[in-house]
């Protein structure tokens, strides 16, 4: 197993690069890790250079998992392994996935790393990325599963008002001292297999203290795991992450074919902030990174401002060659008492009759559902086909918003400006080519609008030079 490498200027158009870090011998594997920019040359690897890149990763063998570093003097295109590796070894086969950040207050590097089967995240500090000192542990919090993996530590700003139409407007974002510690587990997710959870709290350079003991789940479906936050984004800005869009229960057996020659994919890149919400303090809010570079047309392909107790049907079989769409809907003026009605969407194949569907029940405990059970290209007992969550109506705005992005075999949904999100893969026998959005039995006065955009496909080149 090696460290792959791809580069992008917008997080959507990617180019494969040559393998970044290879194993050094048979039986070795390059496992997960992270990379930082050593601006001040604390490592000593970069004389007269302020943009040196250092990768910190786990070297896996049958005997041990150790932490190693490699450095790049050409912006991360090629790496040289540190001659005195490993930089951290404790004699364990379950010690992996280092995530490293710079902590300005102490002028130290900080590593979070999983003692996987001890259900512990270790915190280490270093002045130079090569000498590490244990500082503290964070143990047995949240869902344990079989093991902890892929921790992340990141400082996040807070939203002033999560209910505004443009929540990520800079005027609506406040810098704070809050961090989240994200921990992935596998297996042991409530729906089976792998999942990620997060803990909001404070960090002083050596110790992380969670605000409470609650286990908060990143995603209410089943295909969002081991998300990684990009390094060097100012803490006053929304932090950007990307995750592996699959589940260990079936990742190695899902279909593939001549158009892919690979299995699995990455999620959409996401903006991340914190917000206090109704019955949900310190909620992780996630929204898609700017999709506009992918729009197939400058204006929407279909739209309506009068969808209350009505429907919109759009055939995109010839207008969107990629088969990828995004749409937004807004339901407003929802009554605070005795609200009724449903809002549903369905992506269908006009050839095979298969579909992906979802919907929102506006009355009662206001559940939202997502259903991938009407596709026939993959059958597996662990491929859970239905997901749901409760999404309370905001009493201040009396509004519900939904953002959906779908590609040939993955759908991601974002409820109420990203207060809840779900990622689900699916495998139809025929290409989905028709979208229906409909509402019914809504209270008088409720208003519904929707916009649909096509997304261009980007084919990743097989190999690229620098």
Uncertain segments are none
Indicate the proportion of strand residues.
Answer: 35-45%
Structural class: mainly beta
Largest sheet: 6 strands, antiparallel
Radius of gyration: 23 Å
Q: What sort of overall outline do the alpha carbons produce when their principal axes are compared?
A: globular
Q: Can you walk through the features of this model?
A:
It is a single chain. The protein has 466 residues and is an all-beta fold. It is built from no helices and 33 strands. It has strands spanning 6-8, 14-16, 29-37, 53-60, 65-72, 80-81, 95-103, 108-115, 120-126, 133-139, 148-155, 158-159, 173-174, 178-185, 195-203, 208-210, 216-217, 225-229, 239-244, 270-277, 280-288, 302-304, 311-315, 324-332, 342-348, 355-361, 367-374, 386-390, 400-406, 410-415, 420-425, 434-440, 447-455. It has a 6-stranded antiparallel beta sheet, with no helix packed on it. Strands 23-32-25-26-27-28 form a 6-stranded antiparallel beta sheet, with no helix packed on it. Strands 11, 14, 15, 16 and 17 form a 5-stranded antiparallel beta sheet that branches. The mean pLDDT is 95.
Produce a short descriptive summary:
The chain has no helices and 33 strands.
Topology:
Blueprint: E1 6-8, E2 14-16, E3 29-37, E4 53-60, E5 65-72, E6 80-81, E7 95-103, E8 108-115, E9 120-126, E10 133-139, E11 148-155, E12 158-159, E13 173-174, E14 178-185, E15 195-203, E16 208-210, E17 216-217, E18 225-229, E19 239-244, E20 270-277, E21 280-288, E22 302-304, E23 311-315, E24 324-332, E25 342-348, E26 355-361, E27 367-374, E28 386-390, E29 400-406, E30 410-415, E31 420-425, E32 434-440, E33 447-455
Antiparallel strand pairs: 1-2, 3-4, 4-5, 5-6, 7-8, 8-9, 9-10, 11-14, 12-13, 14-15, 15-16, 15-17, 18-19, 19-20, 20-21, 22-33, 23-32, 24-29, 24-33, 25-26, 25-32, 26-27, 27-28, 29-30, 30-31
